[in-house]
Amino acid sequence: MFKLNTIIKSTLAILVIATSTNAWAAEEKTTDPKAADQKVTEQKLEIGQVTSSFDITVYGYIKLDAIYDSQATVIGDLGFFVKPKIDGKNDNEFNMTARETRLGLKIGGPTVYDGKLSGRLEIDFYGRSDSENGYHPRLRLGYIDWAFENWSMRFGQDWETFITVAPKTVNFDTMADKGALGLRRAQARLTKNFNLSETSSIFVKAAAATTIAPDADQDGQVDGKDSGVPTFQYNLGYMGKILTEKKSRMSVSGHYGTETYHYEGRVDSKNVDTWSVIGSLYMPVVDCVTLAGTIWTGSNLDTYFGGIGQGINSIDDEGIGASGGWVQLMYFPTEKLNLNLIYGIDDPDNEDINEGMRSKNTVIGVNGYYSFTKALIGCLEYQRIETDYYMQQEAEDNRFQAAMKYVF
Questions:
Q1: What phi and psi, each to the nearest 5 degrees, are found at residue 266?
Q2: Do 287 and 246 meet the contact criterion of CB atoms below 8 Å apart?
Q3: I need a surface site. Which of 61, 86, 270, 387 has the fewest CB within 10 A?
Q4: 390-394 long-range Cβ contacts below 8 angstroms, 24+ apart
Q5: Gap between the Cα atoms of 394 and 359, Å rounded
């Protein structure tokens, strides 16, 4: 019995070796590279390769920020504005975070009715903040593009249609509540380009966008949706060469919407407008120096990061007017080094606010970026932030920030 088992096992082993040798020999004799590639592809697919019928490009970066503030800010790692002093004394703080880390997909698509379809999906980790090290994902961008020769349509969440240029800061807030209006929101946008020459054009953009607003009246319905209508956004601008071979951009843009409030004891609802008018400029002055900035005015701008986060006066239920802007000088002495000087201001109307509310927020800052390689970037920034409180003591912060960024 023992000898029989041994013979059977030996025979099976010889058969396995022979089969493997024949398969190897057959592969060695294959002269068609396409067949070989197809076989490799099939083998990879069998072990779980992710595929799509469209081209997909993965992009993003990993970033670590380290921030020291001489006086605490709202929110610490973003520094929108400076908190009041406690008993006349500063309260410094240190923050370190990787929440800005970003991941995105650029998705190609087919041509439909002579228009090219594409999509984009992008997240970071500035979602719900309930942990110092357990970051939650947040949708930044998620839209469909349908682009034709001189016009296009976009459906989904994207940057405000009225944004033409944005400041370059190491601080992730990019001057929010300190002079730069807007963020991202769901919208349906139409863009039309009118070519003036081979290097210049006029663009017109219009969008219906969601009206983001808090539930200030606490009736269980957010006040932007309660209005029953979307917000209209627009952007009329010019793009072309002016002082250098690099293209300049300038525009007039803005938005108009309505928020609806229902208060206990009040029979009729109350509508409060939200609006802005914005002038923007991005102009390369010489090859290595660029000037950029915006100036704006409007009302009820808290969800657009205007009015220093103040939209409605809770005493008289009226919109808080505000004006502001920012200007930045960008210098590129070498391909690896970029230095920037920036100033910004957000100035609510004093007649619209009450004692203790934020009456002005200013910042002056300088930052630098050094590219060790195209993928690895070191960043340094200093900002002096001053926040005035109406009829009360102002608060100041010296903010130092360092970051390392790995781009892929």
A1: -105, 125
A2: yes
A3: 86
A4: 390/350, 390/353, 390/354, 390/355, 390/356, 390/357, 390/358, 390/359, 391/355, 391/356, 392/84, 392/355, 392/356, 393/84, 393/85, 393/88
A5: 9
Q: Is the pLDDT of residue 69 over 90?
A: yes
Mean pLDDT highest for which of 31-45, 207-221, 305-319, 341-355? 341-355
Backbone region of residue 143 per phi and psi (left: phi > 0; alpha: psi in -120 to 50; beta: other values): beta
What percentage of the chain carries pLDDT values higher than 70? 86
- Asked if residue 407 lies in contact with residue 377, where contact means CB atoms within 8 angstroms, the answer is yes
pLDDT band at 268 (very low <50, low <70, confident <90, very high): low
Phi, psi of 2 (to 5 degrees): -60, -45
- Measure the CA–CA gap between 304 and 314, rounded to whole angstroms: 18
Locate 229 and state its tokens.
Answer: 């209508």
Phi then psi dihedrals of residue 304, to 5 deg: -110, 10
Round to whole Å and give the CA distance between 372 and 375: 8
Task: Please state the length of the chain.
Answer: 408
- Tell me the average pLDDT across 55-71: 97
Please answer whether residues 262 and 225 qualify as being in contact, where contact means their C-beta atoms are separated by less than 8 angstroms: no
3-state secondary structure 45-80: HHCCCCCCCCCEEEEEEEEEEEEEECCCEECCCCCC
3-state helix, strand, coil in the chain (%, to 5): 15, 50, 35
The model's pTM: 0.84
Range 348-354 average pLDDT: 97
CA angle 218, 224, 230 (to 5 degrees): 165
Residue where the block lists tokens 């790692």:
77
With beta carbons less than 8 A apart as the criterion, state whether 291 and 274 touch: no
Q: What is the pLDDT of residue 36?
A: 43
DSSP element (H, E) containing 7: helix 2-29
Q: What sign does the CA torsion over 167, 95, 310, 126 have?
A: positive
pLDDT value at position 394? Answer: 95
pLDDT class of 130 with cuts at 50, 70, 90: confident
Phi first, then psi: give them for residue 193, nearest 5 degrees.
-110, 135
DSSP 308-335: GG--EETTTTEEPEEEEEEEEEEE-SSS
* 378, containing H or E segment: strand 376-389
Q: What is the mean pLDDT of residues 289-308?
A: 98
Q: What is the mean pLDDT of residues 348-356?
A: 97
